[in-house]
Specification:
- The protein contains two helices and two strands; from the N terminus they run βαβα.
- By secondary structure, the protein is α+β, with helices and mostly antiparallel strands.
- It has one domain (2-59).
- It has a two-stranded parallel sheet.
- Helix 1 links the parallel strand 1 (2-6) and strand 2.
Length: 65
């Protein structure tokens, strides 16, 4: 799971994202958290894409047929 959190004019407060992180830890999930300081809601998508692709490149399972 990849979490991206922005700190500028956030609709979802960082504290809420931290609750998700705490739950991921509790469940022993593979996850990464990226807090993007100064990025607002719209630009966080574009700004986070490289790290999303990197994460899935490291953690994807091969397709079984």
């Amino acid at each position: 799971m990849r979490f991206h959190c922005r700190t500028k004019i956030s609709i979802v407060p960082v504290a809420i994202s931290q609750q998700w992180i705490d739950k991921a830890k509790e469940l022993n999930m593979t996850y990464e958290y990226n807090e993007m300081t100064g990025v607002s809601h719209g630009p966080v998508i574009t700004a986070s894409l490289p790290s999303v692709y990197e994460f899935f490149g490291k953690h994807s399972k091969s397709a079984s047929r």
